[in-house]
From TrEMBL:
Family that this chain belongs to: Belongs to the complex I subunit 2 family.
Subcellular location: Mitochondrion inner membrane
Protein name: NADH-ubiquinone oxidoreductase chain 2
Any one Gene Ontology BP term: mitochondrial electron transport, NADH to ubiquinone
Entry GO MF terms: NADH dehydrogenase (ubiquinone) activity
Membrane spanning stretches: 24-43, 55-77, 92-112, 148-167, 174-193, 199-217, 229-249, 269-289
Length: 311
């Protein structure tokens, strides 16, 4: 318990260090601490898949952190400044690439489903939510220098890949990984337009993702989800609602950020990108509907002998 609480504290503190820093080295230190403190947490189950996931996660995050360090040294060399808002176009591009690798945004996303598949659902939740905050903060801080075209392209690519690749999956964690990639795509698109809107998108994403991951923690594959009806119909119904919300169906919360992002895009005259990103969210909505369908409307393949726990 002592080691566990130390790791959790370190994980929390490292994100806060990055968020509050104004110096590139301090931000980099925060990111490094963040990676190092989550590695034992991923490893905890001692399963070969967990070991593999930890190695992959470490390699990716270390590469990204090194790129950030390199970019910050180049910035200091060219401008004589270590403060985060001072960046040159070249270093901004290098930084953006590193942050995209950290966030698992397409086309640098291939590690993400692999890592999530090898770990427990709760650790996957931490990687999908808390671990996104620090890199996004760096994007916020360098917001005025970011290359809009590159970000829009990356956002669109993420939304498309997150939707398409998720269709082929049967494991709930992999599905959630691709869903996360698609949401990050929307988030990056919002970042080009309006940082305030990005905050709203991020908060909505955090809340709905936590609400989806927690009930799914018991189920490994999509068929397992169907067996959870005898345990608690209430949980199942709310899970279905959160899944629909993640997909962005109109009366639910998840629709709000998407609607606002589309409004911003169309008012900026980017109708083509708005249409494409909207079409890209349809495949992901399809696999949410499929999950909800398996959850509520079908019984497991055999007749269950389980007593209804909730009676």
């Amino acid at each position: 318990p002592a080691i566990w609480s130390t790791l959790t504290l370190s994980l929390t503190t490292s994100t806060l260090i990055t968020m509050t820093s104004n110096h590139w080295l301090l931000a980099w230190l925060g990111l490094e601490l963040n990676t190092l403190s989550i590695l034992p947490i991923i490893m905890k189950s001692h399963h070969p898949r967990a070991t593999e996931a930890t190695t992959k996660y470490f390699m990716v995050q270390a590469t990204a952190a090194t790129m950030i360090l390199m970019a910050s040294i180049m910035t200091a060399w060219q401008t004589g400044q270590w403060s985060i808002p001072h960046t040159t176009p070249t270093t901004t591009l290098l930084n953006t690439t590193a942050i995209m690798l950290k966030l698992g945004i397409a086309p640098l996303h291939l590690w993400y489903p692999q890592v999530l598949q090898g770990i427990t659902m709760n650790t996957a939740l931490v990687i999908s939510t808390w671990q996104k905050i620090a890199p996004l903060t760096l994007l916020y801080m360098t917001h005025h220098n970011l290359n809009t075209q590159v970000l829009l392209l990356l956002g669109l690519a993420s939304a498309l890949i997150g939707g398409w690749a998720g269709l082929n999956q049967t494991q709930t964690r992999t599905i959630m990984a691709f869903s996360s990639i698609a949401h990050m795509g929307w988030l990056i698109t919002a970042m080009t337009m309006n940082p305030g809107l990005t905050t709203l998108t991020m908060l909505t994403y955090l809340i709905t993702t936590i609400a989806t991951f927690k009930p799914l923690a018991m189920s490994k594959t999509m068929l397992d989800v169907g067996t959870s009806w005898p345990l608690s119909p209430t949980t199942l119904t709310t899970t279905m609602m959160t899944l629909m919300s993640l997909g962005g169906l109109p009366p639910l919360t998840g629709f709000m950020p998407k609607w606002l992002i589309l409004k911003e895009l169309t008012s900026a005259g980017l109708t083509l990108i708005a249409t494409l990103i909207l079409m890209a969210s349809l495949p992901s909505l399809f696999f949410y509907v499929r999950l909800a369908y398996l959850t509520t409307l079908t019984t497991p393949p055999s007749t269950t002998n389980t007593t209804h726990k909730w009676r």
